[in-house]
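Re: [ENG-882] Designed sequences occasionally contain unexpected residues at chain ends

Forwarding the minimal case from QA. Structure tokens:
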């Protein structure tokens, strides 16, 4: 495999196992969320104990951690169990919004790290870094899910699920399709 061929195949998305690609992107996001969990706790602790720390930044770190954890749980449920068009579409919208939230958090924590004194900005820089990594990961995941959503959706809307309606025959000529109504003359 030459680099030129690899670039050509990736740019046209030929011979790509889309489900595997989406799964790897999601697992990458889950690993980063686990690391963000630890970094957010450290950021909240440092901002709450430092003299010039921002309690608002500590709250923001914990809140972003809870949002990312909630998205991870809900997204895993959608990817494994609830693969309906509505659930996948809702999940795609939430991932897109979370990507933008991570970008805003990246800018916020980068600004806090720049304004802090030397030695007191490590937690804010770490939070900014992982928010940026999650911004990139969620953006790539949203693009992949948007492009290959039809491979993820299990659409069973045409298959009878509860057995109702299997033995119903179409109305005979001269009859209406209303159940229980007397036949009408034509």
């Amino acid at each position: 495999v030459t680099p030129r061929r690899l670039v050509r195949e990736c740019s046209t998305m030929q011979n790509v196992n889309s489900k595997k690609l989406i799964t790897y992107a999601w697992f990458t996001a889950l690993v980063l969320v686990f690391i963000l969990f630890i970094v957010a706790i450290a950021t909240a602790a440092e901002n709450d104990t430092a003299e010039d720390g921002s309690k608002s930044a500590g709250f923001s770190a914990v809140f972003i951690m809870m949002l990312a954890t909630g998205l991870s749980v809900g997204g895993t449920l959608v990817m494994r169990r609830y693969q309906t068009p509505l659930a996948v579409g809702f999940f795609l919208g939430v991932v897109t919004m979370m990507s933008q939230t991570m970008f805003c958090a990246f800018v916020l924590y980068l600004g806090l790290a720049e304004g802090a004194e030397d030695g007191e900005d490590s937690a804010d820089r770490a939070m900014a870094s992982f928010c940026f990594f999650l911004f990139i990961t969620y953006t790539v995941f949203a693009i992949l899910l948007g492009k290959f959503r039809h491979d993820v959706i299990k659409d069973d809307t045409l298959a009878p699920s509860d057995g109702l309606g299997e033995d119903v025959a179409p109305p005979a000529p001269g009859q209406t399709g209303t159940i229980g109504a007397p036949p009408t003359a034509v």
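QA comment: On inspection the terminal residues look reasonable. Helices lie at 3-12, 18-49, 55-80, 85-115, 122-147, 149-152. Proposing we downgrade this to a documentation issue.
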